[in-house]
From TrEMBL:
Transposase Tc1-like domain residues: 21-90
Coiled-coil annotated spans: none
GO molecular-function terms, A-Z: DNA binding
Example GO biological process: DNA integration
Protein species of origin: Rhizopus oryzae
Protein name listed in UniProt: Transposase Tc1-like domain-containing protein
Length: 146
């Protein structure tokens, strides 16, 4: 009977399966939030590799980068005020809404940008709090122009 154990050809993976599962678990529970943190964690565990290799480790365990959703910070007071407003205007007619004036405004940044921030997750996962970039009014230094 021929030997049924196949030799593994080609280059071996630089990161063990146990370490891959550890990285996957820490990214999904929010302990590691960025690819840079994953890269530093792998170096801490003794794996000398490039930043791109750390990203490849994430991809190998089916974790991909997505752009963070920007959502306003809602306190309990904000939520109560919204509910009260909704109840007050619940039975407005179309004519009532036609009398409301909606204005357009444009934000101009003075410092920094509102550029993309990324998070890592599996494609089938739902959003978690660390996947959202919380925003507040007047929080970044900018002005509005009509």
């Amino acid at each position: 009977m021929p030997n049924r154990i196949r030799k593994k050809d080609g280059k071996q993976r630089p990161v063990s399966d146990i370490t891959r599962r550890l990285i996957k678990r820490e990214v999904l529970n929010g302990s590691l939030r960025t690819a840079k943190e994953v890269h530093l964690k792998l170096e801490e565990l003794g794996y000398s590799m490039s930043y791109q290799s750390a990203i490849n480790v994430l991809h190998s365990v089916k974790i991909f980068a997505e752009i963070k959703k920007k959502k306003p910070l809602l306190t309990v007071q904000h939520k109560k005020a919204r509910l009260a407003w909704d109840k007050k205007h619940q039975y407005w007619t179309i004519d009532n809404w036609r009398r409301v004036i909606f204005s357009d405004e444009t934000k101009i940044n003075i410092w920094g940008s509102d550029g993309c921030k990324y998070y890592w997750k599996r494609k089938v996962d739902r959003l978690h709090p660390h996947h959202i970039e919380v925003t507040v009014k007047h929080g970044g230094g900018g002005c509005f122009a009509k």
